[in-house]
Amino acid sequence: MEFLKEYWPLLVCIVLIIVAVVLLIVFRDKNEQTQVETKQENKEDATKDEKATETKAEASKKESAKKEKTKKVEEPAKEDDKKEPVKEEKAEEKVEEKTEKVEEVENSEKSVETESNEMETKKEASQKYMVTYDKEAKQWVVKKTGATRASKRCKTKKEAMEVAEKLAESQDLNLTVKKKDGKFQKRENASK
């Protein structure tokens, strides 16, 4: 009994160390199991990717074989001369269908290109520099629309206006200035 009274802190430390070691062993085993599972999943993903590439390769081979078959428009004449014009007509129809499909694809590509060009011009047209006041930082901010970060932070509005005017002029963009309370003050158009 006296032994416990004298050495109880030492015994508590030993018990805590034993518990910590047991917990480390248990968690390490769980981590090893999860690592093994992730390795197995990675192997499965790799095999799926390989199968997908194989199927794509097979599909491309089939497509090339089909193209070669369609190139063979004329077949050797056999017994009947009547069958030959029918085969030529079918081949011509196939060629016409394919040319129509190619034209459709080209038209859709052109429309996608024009749409992307229109979107770019709209983005450029909507781009402008703004001078606003940041109440939290107590600074004037020069920022381009759509940007996440400020182009410049200034202590005075005059300094911010000068910076914004230079930036807007160099990039041919419009400039919008707001008052300290956030209300619209003025707008300057780019000089083109």
What distance separates the N and C termini? 97 Å
* Helix fraction bin: 55-70%
Please state roughly what percent of the residues sit in beta strands, choosing from under 5%, 5-15%, 15-25%, 25-35%, 35-45% or over 45%.
5-15%
Number of strands: 5
Number of helices: 3
Give the neighbour order of strands across the main sheet.
Answer: 3-2-1-4-5
- Residue stretches low in confidence (pLDDT < 50, at least 5 long) are 77-81
What is the structural class? alpha+beta
Alpha carbon gyration radius: 37 Å
What do you see in this structure?
This protein is an alpha+beta fold. It has a domain at about 130-190. It is built from 3 helices and 5 strands, in the order H-H-E-E-E-H-E-E. It has helices at about 1-70, 85-125, 155-170, and strands spanning about 130-135, 140-145, 150-155, 175-180, 185-190. It has a 5-stranded mixed β-sheet with strand order 3-2-1-4-5. The radius of gyration is 37 Å and the shape is flat.
Summarize the structure.
The protein is of the alpha+beta class. It is built from three helices and five strands.
Set out the fold topology.
Elements (H helix, E strand, L loop, with lengths): L1 H70 L11 H44 L1 E7 L4 E6 L7 E3 L2 H15 L2 E5 L5 E5 L4
Parallel strand pairs: 1-4
Antiparallel strand pairs: 1-2, 2-3, 4-5
